[in-house]
Amino acid sequence: MNATRTPLRAAPAAGRLHLLVFRPPAEEVARVCPLMQALDEMEAARAASYVSARDRTQYVAAHATLRGLLAEYTGLEPGRIVLGRSEEPYGKPQLIDPPVPLHFNLSHSHGLIAIGVAAAPVGVDVQRVPSPEAVEMVLPRLHPQEREELRELPAAERTVAFARLWTRKEAYLKGLGTGLTRSPAADYLGDRNARGRPHGWTVRNVPVQPGYAAAAALRNHPT
């Protein structure tokens, strides 16, 4: 089998994001993920470390699908794609020596998976809506204006609003390359002041099934 082939997709145009949000079928990993053998040694070891079959399926489905998508863009065989980490504090995942400019990010939580691929830095995040108690614990860590906006909402609406806000925040911080090594209070990602959001980034929620929230962040000017 050749290591390279003709790419099936052109690289995403500037300002465009290829986003997948999906739930893997509840079947055996080997049946769900024909690309499982394409996982590298570290991914295979991580998959094997999961005690829960559901969690293992989720992890393998996420990483196998990512490799399949990157293969379509690069023309490389999924198993020949070399992934690494950037030198940024968060150690953002990246392609090593990509044949085309390509950035990606993935997230998975409680059976739901999000993958984003773009020509510019990108971050994605998916979360299950937390309990009211969990929201109260995290509120002090947020930007002051975000805290104010959430406090003004009826209690029945606060958990969903928080989940939408938190996924925007995580997607942006992942795209930035810092993750939560950067304080969640440092940047405003609330709903009421669009101009107060980080300059040079588009950060939006994406539709998902009830009980979850998801968001994507895309840098909209060259690095």
UniProtKB/TrEMBL annotation:
It holds the Pfam family AASDHPPT_N. InterPro entries: 4-PPantetheinyl_Trfase_dom (IPR008278), 4-PPantetheinyl_Trfase_dom_sf (IPR037143), AASDHPPT_N (IPR055066), P-Pant_transferase_sf (IPR050559). Residues 121-184 form the 4'-phosphopantetheinyl transferase domain. The keyword Cell membrane does not apply. SUPFAM superfamilies: 4'-phosphopantetheinyl transferase. The keyword Repeat does not apply. Keywords: Transferase. GO terms for molecular function: transferase activity. Residues 35-114 form the 4'-phosphopantetheinyl transferase N-terminal domain. Belongs to the P-Pant transferase superfamily. Gsp/Sfp/HetI/AcpT family. This is 4'-phosphopantetheinyl transferase family protein. It comes from Streptomyces noboritoensis.
